[in-house]
Amino acid sequence: MEILTYRAFITPDANPRSGNPAGVVIGAEALSRADMLTVARDLGFSETAFLTETTPGSTRVRYFSPRDEIAFCGHATIASGVALARRGAGPVVAFDTNAGEVLVEVSSDRATLTAVDTGVAPLSDALLDELLAALRLSRDDLDPALPPAFVRGGNPHPAVFVREGVLASLDHDGEAVLRLQEREGWDGTIPVVHRLSPGRFASRNPFPRGGIREDPATGSAAAGLGAYLRAGGHLALPAVIEVEQGAEIGRPSLITVDIPLEGRIRVTGAASEL
Known about the structure:
This protein is of the alpha+beta class. The chain is built from five helices and 17 strands.
């Protein structure tokens, strides 16, 4: 068994603080669920991936935050893909996850995951008001061109889109967000997103259910964003967008999202060992 530490969705400027840290445990067959949770807690990252039954073209993966098991994690998938490529796997590895099969194109410095089927649904007014209160935002902070929605990209994410200047001052109520996440069963982050330009977005992702205040880079939310933009007709297709995340917490990250006319969203990121 190998316990590796990576950072995924790193920026191209060689910043050693960029990217979202993740644990990658290769050869985890001997670990029980309780063991996996203990390792995830000891590492202290938002997620750790546990790989079993690994071959050059496939692997079974389970993901744990320091609090519990979750169905899927984008940045730990990118990290795992790079780790496997450095051990001779690829060029495509099928990840058998609790969210479904995820095909991952791997190389020694970056990976591209093809997300599970994504979904988009409206948020009820009552739930939106609760969410905004937990985020310490008001309806005046919202971008009228991009209505709030519930998106799935491997995990469930209630997403809100805000006007210019709101992200920099975001100061959510962590306990209130956690209560809402636990009540609703939201394993994923809460993306708060601002559109910088037609093809570039900035995002902050509160994630108390993952045992951290804010996630530096969230591949699942980025896949859900791609599905949202396509479903709402918010950009010309096919399209490639970039999502900036994590700068406000000292972990600048960059996620690339490929949005086809139809079919599954693809998410790409670079990764490096910590």
